């Protein structure tokens, strides 16, 4: 979601000579080395994790083409082995490997979570935090209940995470159960009308089918909005560096929304089968609202953000709520609903390299299985070539045919500019990245700019000694690039505005600066209310960057 930042006008000072029409001179040879890193979990025929493999035990393919491994490492029981480069020449170009920070997102679908299961699910998550979160890990809590909420941004304080989870466990849930109950009672009402007006059975059956159709459309909207929420959440963490894992607890990610409700109509009107003649097909009607593409979009957004999704199905037979129903729900309907959502959750997890823990009410065991993935995996890297920004299919094959590999199914090429922009967005919601080039920023007094909008003056300074300049004849040439984004606490954020500024100075002009910083001003137009403005400045030559976040809004 990117409606927050409405406009940005960059007004630079004249403390330097601007040469925006010129390219930087080719004084140094530079290129972008783009490495795709793919985490891989390997299991044997019994499902046990396999450790101790080497780079020679794997083949990795991009769009069906075998790739040369540039780096290889194994993580086992929390201790990373020494990375083994596949190519000495390429390894020399790579920075030294550092232990990865683990970012764990607990995403709970309160809309579908039945109140009778809430304590089970939240209790299992609390125990997961106690058992599986280690020092240095960061935890985020996110919920879906017709809209996305993030009650806890990433924190490394386990006590804060447990306290937030305990508070969240008291939140209202079960909106799906209520929507289903309303629809079923309307269907039962049409059935009762058919009993009193047997000559109009077909008419009342059609009315009941229309009720199911409305419910299906309602669930289609929920599914599309949830898909957008996934994309939004993925975008806010795309710029975070580390191993990113999402644990998604839900029982409602339907591929064919409302299929069970259509079946409920047919079962309810079964006694009138002779009068009706031919029932409609639930799969056909529900299929008109198919969410296959929405679920593919969830996986694509997660892969683009480097997030592995583990899905935990928290539904099942709702015996606790049977008293709310005049007409009991059959096992056929329960199975149809389970298969429809569980298969979608499995596909999303599989495409992102995660697991689908489905069909079990033992949530503790499911979370323990996921925890094994955090501690036992291989990391394979290969060099991405070409400029194609479309998703690229990835396949990892163990050379031992008796082993199975689980991995994300696609990667996307991102430029350094894209990565800097991702970092600016992530800084709005998570601890800012390092301010290596020591930029400073101040926020002026916001001015009203039309209905519900504010014009916010932002003044940024960059130490002139942090901008690299290289000789170019009688001049010194370099520059920097500015990235600016805005967001608010609800998770809305803007497109990231970008502005490249070239610097071309004579030795005399540079001396005249006498260490004074480069300055520029930006007018950012945002929605009224509390918010944050995120700023990033990158040296064009060295690619060193500085980041800041400032509060704004009235």
Keywords:
554 residues, alpha+beta, Immunoglobulin-like, Rossmann fold, five-stranded antiparallel β-sheet
Write down the overall mean pLDDT. 85
Residue ranges: pLDDT <50 for 5 or more in a row? 1-31, 78-97, 317-325
Shape: globular
Name the CATH superfamily classification of the largest domain.
von Willebrand factor, type A domain
SS summary, helix count: 13
Short précis:
The chain is of the alpha+beta class and 554 residues long.
What can you see in these coordinates?
This protein is of the alpha+beta class and 554 residues long. The chain folds into 3 domains: 155 residues, Immunoglobulin-like (Sandwich), CATH 2.60.40.10; 95 residues, no CATH class; 251 residues, 3-Layer(aba) Sandwich (Rossmann fold), CATH 3.40.50. The strands form 5 sheets. A 6-stranded mixed beta sheet has the order 9-8-7-10-11-12, sandwiched between helices. β18 and β19 form a beta hairpin. α5 runs parallel beside α9 and α6 packs antiparallel against α10.
Topology:
Blueprint: E1 7-12, E2 35-43, E3 58-62, E4 65-67, E5 69-76, E6 79-80, H1 88-91, E7 102-109, H2 118-132, E8 138-144, E9 148-155, H3 158-168, H4 175-196, H5 201-237, E10 243-250, H6 259-268, H7 273-276, H8 282-287, H9 292-304, E11 307-313, H10 331-351, E12 356-357, H11 363-375, E13 376-383, E14 392-398, E15 404-406, E16 410-411, H12 416-429, E17 440-443, E18 447-448, E19 453-462, E20 469-472, E21 475-487, E22 497-506, H13 507-513, E23 518-527, E24 531-539, E25 545-552
Parallel strand pairs: 7-8, 7-10, 10-11, 11-12
Antiparallel strand pairs: 1-23, 2-13, 2-15, 3-4, 3-14, 5-6, 5-13, 8-9, 14-16, 17-19, 18-19, 19-23, 20-21, 21-22, 21-24, 24-25
């Amino acid at each position: 979601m990117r409606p927050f930042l409405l406009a940005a006008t960059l007004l630079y000072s004249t403390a330097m000579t601007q040469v925006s029409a010129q390219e930087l001179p080719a004084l140094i040879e530079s290129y972008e080395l783009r490495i795709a890193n793919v985490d891989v979990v390997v299991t044997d025929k019994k499902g046990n994790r396999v450790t101790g493999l080497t780079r020679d035990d794997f083949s990795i393919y991009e769009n069906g083409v075998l790739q040369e491994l540039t780096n290889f490492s194994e993580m086992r029981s929390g201790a990373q082995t020494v990375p083994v480069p596949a190519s000495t020449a390429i390894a020399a170009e790579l920075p030294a490997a550092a232990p990865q920070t683990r970012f764990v997102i607990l995403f709970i679908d309160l809309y579908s979570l039945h109140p009778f299961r809430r304590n089970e699910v939240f209790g299992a998550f609390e125990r997961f935090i106690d058992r599986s979160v280690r020092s240095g890990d960061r935890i985020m809590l996110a919920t879906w209940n017709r809209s996305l909420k993030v009650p806890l941004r990433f924190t490394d304080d386990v006590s804060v995470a447990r306290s937030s989870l305990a508070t969240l466990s008291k939140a209202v849930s079960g909106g799906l159960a209520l929507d289903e109950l309303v629809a079923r009672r309307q269907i039962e009402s049409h059935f009762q009308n058919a009993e009193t007006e047997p000559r109009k059975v077909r008419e009342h059956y059609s009315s009941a089918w229309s009720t199911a159709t409305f419910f299906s459309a309602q669930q289609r909207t929920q599914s599309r909005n949830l898909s957008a929420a996934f994309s939004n959440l993925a975008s806010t963490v795309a710029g975070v560096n580390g191993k990113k894992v999402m644990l998604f607890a839900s029982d409602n990610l339907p591929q064919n929304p409302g299929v069970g409700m259509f079946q409920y109509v047919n079962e309810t009107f079964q006694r009138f089968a002779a009068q009706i003649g031919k029932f409609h097909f639930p799969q056909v009607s529900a299929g008109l609202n198919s969410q296959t593409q929405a679920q593919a979009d969830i996986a694509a957004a997660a892969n683009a953000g480097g997030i592995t999704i583990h899905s935990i199905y928290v539904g099942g037979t709702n015996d606790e709520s049977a008293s709310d129903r005049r007409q009991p729900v059959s096992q056929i309907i329960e199975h149809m609903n389970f298969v429809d959502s569980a298969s979608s959750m499995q596909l999303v997890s599989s495409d992102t390299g995660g697991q689908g823990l489905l069909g079990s009410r033992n949530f503790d065991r499911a979370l323990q299985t996921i925890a094994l993935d955090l501690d036992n995996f291989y990391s394979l890297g290969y060099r991405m070539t070409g400029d194609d920004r479309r998703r690229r299919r990835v396949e990892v094959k163990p050379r031992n045919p008796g082993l199975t590999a689980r991995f994300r199914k696609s990667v996307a090429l991102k430029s350094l500019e894209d990565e800097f922009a991702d970092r600016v967005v992530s800084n709005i919601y998570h601890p800012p990245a390092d301010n290596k080039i020591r930029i400073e920023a101040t926020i002026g007094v916001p001015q009203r700019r039309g209905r519900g909008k504010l014009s916010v003056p932002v003044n940024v300074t960059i130490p002139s000694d942090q901008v690299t300049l290289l000789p170019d004849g009688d001049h010194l040439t370099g520059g920097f690039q500015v990235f600016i984004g805005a967001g608010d606490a609800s998770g809305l954020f803007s497109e990231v505005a970008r502005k490249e500024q070239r610097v071309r100075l004579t030795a005399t002009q540079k001396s005249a600066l006498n260490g004074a910083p480069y300055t520029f001003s930006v007018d950012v137009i945002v929605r009224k209310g509390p918010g944050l403005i995120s700023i990033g400045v990158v040296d064009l030559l060295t690619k060193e960057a500085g980041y800041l976040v400032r509060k704004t809004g009235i």
